[in-house]
Amino acid sequence: MTMALWFECKVRFDKMMENGSVKKVTESYLVDALSFTEAEARIIEECKPYISGDFSIPAIKKTNIAEIFFNNCADKWWSVKYNIITIDEKSAKERRTAVYVMVQADSQQEATDTFNKGMKGTMADFEIEKVAETKIIDIYPAKLSSTNGTGKADG
Fold it and tell me: pTM for the whole thing?
């Protein structure tokens, strides 16, 4: 299994506001893709059914997100920065390696709890450095085909 490569895509379009007015907005989404080109194609494919009229993709950037913790009951996306703590064998000093994950949750506490639950059973020592709400509207993981990479169907 290859590691997911997450791209943040900004989508600009005219959005109907609750008061009936139309306003130009830019929303951020995360897409799992192998390249910028694929990320652009994927976000266009995902957004087309939901956006009437013209839209543009003014920006796509590669992220350093290592993992996504989904919770379909929640509406917000939180960025969790945590540090994996290892001991350098030569110097015997603690080393911290920062890792970023996205957690779907309705509150900061729920995001922290969901993250901790997802990390249960992890052998490495880690500490949470920051849990912050993001402007991400939605996340689109790769569409997995019905084969498992060997040409044989999963089952």
Answer: 0.85
